Amino acid sequence: xxxxxxxxxxxxxxxxxxxxxxxxxxxxxxxxxxxxxxxxxxxxxxxxxxxxxxxxxxxxxxxxxxxxxxxxxxxxxxxxxxxxxxxxxxxxxxxxxxxxxxxxxxxxxxxxxxxxxxxxxxxxxxxxxxxxxxxxxxxxxxxxxxxxxxxxxxxxxxxxxxxxxxxxxxxxxxxxxxxxxxxxxxxxxxxxxxxxxxxxxxxxxxxxxxxxxxxxxxxxxxxxxxxxxxxxxxxxxxxxxxxxxxxxxxxxxxxxxxxxx
Length: 261
Known about the structure:
Elements: E1 2-3, E2 17-28, E3 34-43, E4 49-54, E5 60-66, E6 72-79, E7 85-91, E8 98-106, E9 109-116, E10 119-131, E11 137-144, E12 147-155, E13 161-169, E14 173-183, H1 197-203, E15 215-226, E16 232-245, E17 251-260
Parallel strand pairs: 1-16
Antiparallel strand pairs: 2-3, 3-4, 4-5, 5-6, 6-7, 7-8, 8-9, 9-10, 10-11, 11-12, 12-13, 13-14, 14-15, 15-16, 16-17
């Protein structure tokens, strides 16, 4: 039986993020404003900090996710001569294993495999990415055992992600949904990071769905079906993001308000 929840929950979450930026070697863009790189995101209660490290080509080579009381999770990237990542190594404070992800490129597809380093023959997940002619992520197909997932992505003329549709299925549940995105007209957190557009969407999961500008509104509608009971639940949420900017037009704080019903 399908159950409707017209007002299941209202949640208000305000999170301010302080950004520390540094100039790159060529620190002016075409309109004369300074180029900055995101170095740090910090929660106002100091419970969380995300730090970014770059090489001489302004590519992200290391990320540190500092949960303060719970320790630091570290991600390291290596790239090929075409500016594509070929390897990622992740280590977590709450996990004794380290994870290796490899990226293989063929035509418009990227094959992503994750291994547990202490058991090289064991593949944790396999993703197949489809990339469009602008370098943006079009599709993801994921599989691991009985779990499968599909996602498709739609963009506007500015290569900003405007909609993502997803489907997930395991032995116990089936989920599908749609996210839609709108943007402001300011610079984005990653405006001058030298990575491919698909990397922003696939690897950087902090609402940065484009390196052009910042997401200002995210809406989600989803359906979750329990395959054992046959029960289906639907939900809708809206995330409103507001920013303050420095004199060069880069965001220096972000407030997040989430409504769920």
